[in-house]
Each structure stands twice: as structure tokens, then as C-alpha cells.
Amino acid sequence: MATVDLGFSFVIFLGVTLALLLTLLHFRQHRQSLARQVQQVQQLKSLRALVAGLQRHRGLSNGVLAGDESMRPGLEKTRRELDGLISDMPLAQSIYQERWVALVDHWQRLREDRIREPGDNLAQHHTIIRNAIFLLQDVAAAEGMPSGHETYACIWHDVIQAAEWAGQARALGTGMAAAGRSTAAQRVRLRFFHQKIRQLSDKAFATLSSGSVAPEPHLARAQALVNRLLGDIETDLLGDSIIVIPAQTYFSNATATIDTLFVLVDDALHRLETTGVRRTSGKPAALQLNPA
């Protein structure tokens, strides 16, 4: 009888020990998951700032190359800010290290300011920005992130892509305004950018208006400024081959629009920070950012 009691006690002991070990393992995995999520959000915040900075550098550099030297101080300031941001980026020792090193190498060549042809300058900027956005999307789709949630997928795809098309319209339009004239080819490209901004922003605003990621006042302001930018493009840049709007004015107005779109991205990042993230099924649609 004592042997039976001893065996039963041993079984109970093993069960309790196993349950304790499983509980400790669960807590450890949970803490590791939370730490990974915090790291991913920090990476997304840094990449969001990088994309916005590179877009700004593209627009300012195109204005300078088109002859508006008043934009050079802003260009040099943006370049310094990008240098600082890149040096502090939390990606050098991550699973994205190889892609990050390639992106940094591209920036080091681009920042030397040796490109003198506006078309080449825009093409190089389009490439590095596209790669930065693809990297951001991959971080957003990583394990532990809510990539399949409709509103978050909208942020990583539609909102960021709308901001990129607006950024391309800012860069091209700034160069046109700095030159005081435009070619038929430039106007065709700008009309295409206009169409893409309208298409993607309308889709994004419709999706986000039914979600809880972006506050309504932020949505309303973004929508108003997108409409203003589209009107400016139609009136000031596509109306005639002779352009009278100052390059700095157009650049500033376009920047205000792009900034409001990135505020929506910031809203999503803030929500991830304050409420935590849970992964759902599915992935956002692939980005399509090849310049026209």
C-alpha cells in the first residue's frame, strides 16, 4: 500500500513539475514575443522616417538641379538628418542586415551629390525609396505583426503607396516649377501620378473610415490636403507649359499633404505600441511602386 501511495505521489510530483515547466516556458515565449514586437515597431518607426526623409531629399534635389538654389539649404539639412537617422537605424544586426547594408551603400553613393541629370537623379531616388518601402512592408508582415488586419494592411500598402506617388508628384512638379516650364512628357507622367494618388487615397480613406486605427480628424485633414494637392497639380502644373507657381510654394504644399498621410502611419504605429499586436491570417498586397 505504501508503494502505491509513493508511486501516486511521484506521478503527482511529475505532473506538477511538468505543469510548472510548461507555464514558465509559456511566460518566456510570451516575453520573447513581446520583445520581438517592440523591436519590430521600432524598426517600422525608423523605416517610416527614412522613407519620408528620402522622399523629401528627392524633391529638394530635383528642385536644385532644375535651377532653384533657394532649396539647397533645405537639401543639405535633410541630408544631415538622413545621415543621423541611418546611423541609428535598428536594422544593422537584424535578419534584414544584408538588405539594409545594400540600402545604406546606395545612400552613400546618392548623397555624394554627383548626379547632374534630373532624370537620373529621380530614377536613383525612386529605386532607393522603393527598396526602403519593400523593407518596411516585410517588417510589417513578419511574425507577430497584424499584417492581415484590413486596416493595418491598408496603412502599409495603400497609405504608404499614396504617399510615395504624392512624393513622386512633388519631386517632378518641383523640378517643373523651378524650371518655369514643362514638357509634354513631364505632364503625361504628372497626370499619371495624379491618377494614382486619387485612386489609392480614395481607397485608403474608405477603408480607414470604418476602422479604429486612424482618428477621424486626421483622416479629414489628410483627405482635404490630398484634394488640395490634386487641385494644385491640375491648376498650376497641368494647365499650361509655362509654370508660374514658385517651386518652394509647390514643394511646401505637397509636403504638407504627404505629412498628413504619414500621420496616419504614425497613428497605426502608436496603436501598435499602446495596445500590442496580434497576428492574423493573410498578408497585404504586394507594393507596386515602379515610377511611370
From TrEMBL:
InterPro entries: Nitrate/nitrite_sensing (IPR013587)
Pfam families noted in UniProt: NIT
Regions that span the bilayer: 6-27
Keywords tagged on the record: Membrane, Transmembrane, Transmembrane helix
Ranges of residues in domain Nitrate/nitrite sensing protein: 49-272
Domain of life: Bacteria
Designated name of the protein: Nitrate/nitrite sensing protein domain-containing protein
Organism: Marinobacter nanhaiticus D15-8W
